[in-house]
TrEMBL record:
Glycosyltransferase listed as a keyword: yes
Family: Belongs to the ComF/GntX family.
Species for this entry: Actinomyces timonensis
Protein's name according to its UniProt entry: Phosphoribosyltransferase family protein
Coiled-coil parts of chain: none
Length: 290
């Protein structure tokens, strides 16, 4: 007689937790990662924000002479899109942001006209471009949320597929384009300097004043710095200084979003002067109503 099969044990708490996201997905409709609109993961309006052409950033004075381009403004739905992707709340945005980065890389290649005609090098070696992400903090590295590095990979792929002829004509050397995460914050600043949120413009500039370390020799390379968001430009400036110290030639920076400049307060016109004692009469009338 065949032994009786043991009854299946009920699923443990871990199994229930693992099934919870799927159950919630069946119960709740999708919401747009930018504006929160239901029944869609990315509404047409927010998709259009990500599909905008590159614009040069004029609101990052700390970047100094570094030319910075951005895809969208870090405000409203654009800010929600970046945060949901950056913090891992919406993993489905990863391929979307990769496509945005690749398209931005193509546009940057056209705007910068890299590699140009190759004049000034005087050598038959191909032009070389290194796409460098801004350094991530130690906490983000521990979580594996290297969004700037992933964005730099996509940007490099976009630059590589841009329809630019090799310098020197059809028979010239093919440009060499790589993406390399070679910048690290100094050990003493890795923890306390990891975040810029909540700091004033002056504090942000001081927080990113020290250049990061460069882990590789970058002599003879052109460089493009990539980051997710630019506010004052202090991070980009310190990265450019570090790359120059390692022998590279920073050409500019490419970011997903730029924080818009603070709005100027509206001018307040003086209230028309009324008869003497009118303001006091209005105050007493309001107090009686309360």
């Amino acid at each position: 007689m065949a032994p009786l099969a043991r009854p299946a044990s009920p699923p443990g708490p871990r199994a229930w937790l693992a099934a919870l996201p799927t159950a919630l997905g069946l119960a709740l409709p999708e919401a747009c990662a930018g504006c929160g609109r239901w029944e869609t993961a990315l509404c047409p309006g927010c998709a259009a924000l990500l599909d905008a052409p590159l614009a040069e950033v004029a609101s990052a004075p700390a970047a100094e002479e570094l030319r910075v381009h951005a895809v969208l403004a870090y405000a409203g739905p654009g800010r929600a899109l970046i945060l949901n992707w950056k913090n891992g709340a919406r993993e489905d945005l990863a391929p979307v942001m990769a496509a945005v980065g690749a398209r931005a890389g193509e546009q940057w290649a056209a705007l910068s006209e890299w590699p140009g005609d190759g004049s000034g090098t005087g050598a038959p070696a191909p032009p070389r471009l290194i796409v460098v992400p801004a350094p991530s903090g130690i906490a983000r590295r521990a979580r594996g949320r290297l969004v700037a590095a992933a964005l730099a990979d996509a940007v490099a792929q976009g630059i590589a597929r841009a329809p630019a002829p090799p310098p020197g004509g059809a028979g010239g050397p093919v440009p060499l384009i790589v993406s390399a995460d070679i910048l690290r914050r100094e050990s003493g600043r890795a923890l306390r300097g990891a975040h810029q949120a909540g700091l004033s413009a002056a504090q942000r500039r001081h927080n990113r004043q020290a250049p990061p370390r460069v882990l590789a020799d970058a002599s003879g390379w052109d460089a493009l710095i990539v980051d997710d968001v630019v506010t004052t430009g202090s991070t980009l400036r310190s990265c450019a200084a570090a790359l120059r110290g390692a022998g590279a030639r920073p050409l500019g920076a490419l970011v997903l979003a730029a924080t818009p400049p603070p709005a100027r307060p509206a001018a307040r016109l003086p209230a028309p002067a009324g008869p003497p004692g009118e303001a006091e009469q209005r105050r007493r009338a309001a107090a009686k109503r309360l």
